[in-house]
Structure formats: C-alpha cells, structure tokens
Amino acid sequence: MAAYLSRLHHISLHVKSVDKLAYDLVSKFKFNLFAARLTDKSRQLAFRKGAAVFVVNERSNQTLHTLNEGASPTTSNSSSRKIWNDAIKHKRKNIDDKCLYDVHPQYTVDTACNVCFEVEDVERSFNSLRDQGCEFLVPPTVVHDERGLVTFSVVKSIVGNVCHTLIDRTKYEGIFLPGFHDVDNVISSDLDQVSDCPITHFDHITYACPRKSTAEVMRWYERHFGFQRFFIDSEEDVDEGYVLNQDGIGLRLTAMEFWKCSEEGIQLPFKDVTEPDCKFVIAESLPEQSSNQVDTFLEQHKGPGIQHIGLYTQDIVSTTQTMATAGVHFFSPPPAYYTELGKQQEMEDAGYDPQMLSQHGILLDTDLRQDSSPSHTTTNQNKRYLLQVFTKPIFAEDTFFLELIERRGASGFGEGNIRALWRSVQAYMENESAMPQRQNTHDITVQTGQH
Ligand SMILES: O=C(O)C(=O)Cc1ccc(O)cc1
Ligand SMILES: [Fe+2]
Fold it and tell me: Which ligand 1 atom is at minimum distance from the Cα of 293?
C-alpha cells in the first residue's frame, strides 16, 4: 500500500454553473453552505451535512458578472438570494484563479469526480504512489492563511475522470481549508433540519465502469490505497463479484472499503475512530441483457465515473419526507416491489407500515450478507435491514444521483433493492428517451404519512 488514508474529507462536484446546484443542496437537500472561495474566474462552494461535505466547483470559463450584478439563480427565492449575499459579502480578489485543491476535469458534462482523503503524510504518499506509477495532476503543494497551513496533492484514479486529492490539514485550525472563507449560516431553521434530516456521513460511492474493468479497478485501489474487498453476498465469487444476470438486469457489483485497511498498529493522532467507513461499489454492465443504465452513463458521461453517492441518514422516513416537501424528486420503485411475496410482512417485522414506505418510495431489504445459520434467521431481532430511496438525476445529463440509506444492522446491500434500483433507473431512462423533455411522471408526491 502506498497511501495511508485516514478519512474521507469531501467529495467535489464540477458543474457548468453553481447556481442551481447550490440552491438545490441548501433548499432541497438541507445542506449548509459553510465556506466559499470566489475569484474573478471561479467559484468553489463547500456544503456540509454532518460529516458529509460537498465542494461544488464551477468550470472556470464562467465569469462572475452574474453573481456580482445580483442576478439570481434560476430557481431564485429569498433563501437562495440570501445564500449569495452571504457568500459574496466576503468576496475578495484572489489572484490565483485556479481551482484550489482540485483540477478541472476534461469532460464538459457536470460530474462528481474528486473524492478527497485526509492522509497522514502527503509527501510520503506522493513519493510512494509515484514510484508505483500513479499519475499526479498536482504535486505536493502548501496553502496557508492566518489559521495555519495545509498540504495537498492530486492523484488521478484509474476510473475515468475521477481523481483523489490527498490532504493533510493537521496543521490547520480554520473551519475548512485555506483560501476558503467562512460563510455565515443562511437558513434560520437549521435546528429543525438536523432533527428532520439527520444525515451523518457518506455511506458509499458507486462507480459506473466499463465491462471487464472491475478487476483492474479493484487492484488499483488495493495496491495504492489499501482498500479491502467487501463481499456484498457471502456466497459471492471472488473473481466474478455479485452478479445479477436475468430478467433484463445485467449487472456485476463488486465492493471495497477503505477504513479497515489503515496501517495496522499505527495510531493516527487525528483519526476519529468513531467515524464510519465509506464503501466503494463498482457497477459493470453485462452484455447478455438489453439496454442498460451503466452503458448509458458511460456514453453520457463520456467515460467511467461516479454514478451515485449514498448519504447515510439516521431516519430515512423523515429525511425523505422533508426533502420531498422541499422539492427533491425521488424515483418510484416498480409497483410490484411492494406486493412481492413476503415483502409487506418483512416491512412489518422491521416495524414499518408498508403503505407508508410505498408512499415515500422507500425500499426495505435484508442484507445479502445475512447470517444464514438457523439461530439468526428465525428471530426478527437478528434480522439486518437496510432502507434506501434514490433521487432522480440531479444534473442536466442523467449521469449522477443521490441516495438516502438507513442501516438497521445491515452493513451491505440487498438483492431486492438492487433489482428495484436497476428497474426504476431503467424505467426513468426509457421514459426520458421516449419523451425529449424531462417528465415528472414518476415523482413521488408529498405525503403526510406518519412513521
Ligand atoms: O444498491 C445500491 O445502492 C448500490 O449502490 C448498488 C447498485 C449499483 C448500481 C446499480 O445500478 C444498482 C445497484
Ligand atoms: Fe447505492
């Protein structure tokens, strides 16, 4: 292993214009804009919910005149205007117009493409990764302000336009990173949002990858970052991964995790042992089935990359309800999902009203890693559940979406949910391609259901 990752610091998104996404993240997904870096040629905004931090970067060919002249985001209302007022209050001329802590991707589509990790020692990671043949887009670089200094470097991943910023912020006392200024909080109902939308961290990141590339991707992450295999199914073949290859679904899933691989025996002074890990899932399509969403992603995105990100919530029902009320569109699972044999019983056993879950489009499944010994399958207390709901794509292209996930004992994924996700994305894309304009026929309507 070359780089010892201590934690996931943030994920960055690169978009043509930050306005709509900033508005959506704050007003609909209930993230807080807490730091910003505004130069004459670029905008970088940082949003937080629990330990989940997104940095939204605007491609640098944009100028700031719309912002400075007070033009509002497309979906302008008073709260989005307030976001901008607070952000630009501190605008200062920054002679360095580069995208700090990152690089602009070559693709011109909006994309989530940098997963930034804190590391113990940037210089050491750089040297050993480079010795192993990794391509660096930014060599170790120091940035400082009055609150300390940060060292970072950017390495290219083997996956499409994905790269990883490796960062050491142990000598920095500011809220985020040097070069960013703090943004005063903008929404008055913050406290409500914490209880209604208790998102705590990034649960998993799913890559869409070309056929037959999984083994190489896994090797890259194992060799360079020490990721370890996470078996989705206890029966899963080591080389094949978890395969669904019937009824129109052609999918190979393989998962890895990075947390448990940190250098054994070495206690990192800044490592928060209570922070959960984030899994990386590789999705590859299989040729035997017809049209599919992984291939559509590769075409629209112009290569492999991040297909979706799972946000962990402690209460998926209230989070979904709050977000839907605020305007987030979720996929509707196939109606048959809720009427499958045993599904309603399973939901009731887990303590949920099936009708309520169905109204919200929330999926409930048992972990494929379920212990199959008789003592574990007979009692409901030992069942390990996971609940998931998926948003519709959040960019103009259908290349990226978010997921909410609540785990009740389950650490992996469930077969029924994987199938349902596949089918609802597929139905959405087929509907989209049949009707050129974005349709809302699959929207979940906002309900008043209780939980
Ligand atoms: O189930 C999840 O949330 C996953 O992340 C696994 C997954 C990945 C890609 C698909 O098209 C379907 C399921
Ligand atoms: Fe997922």
Answer: 11
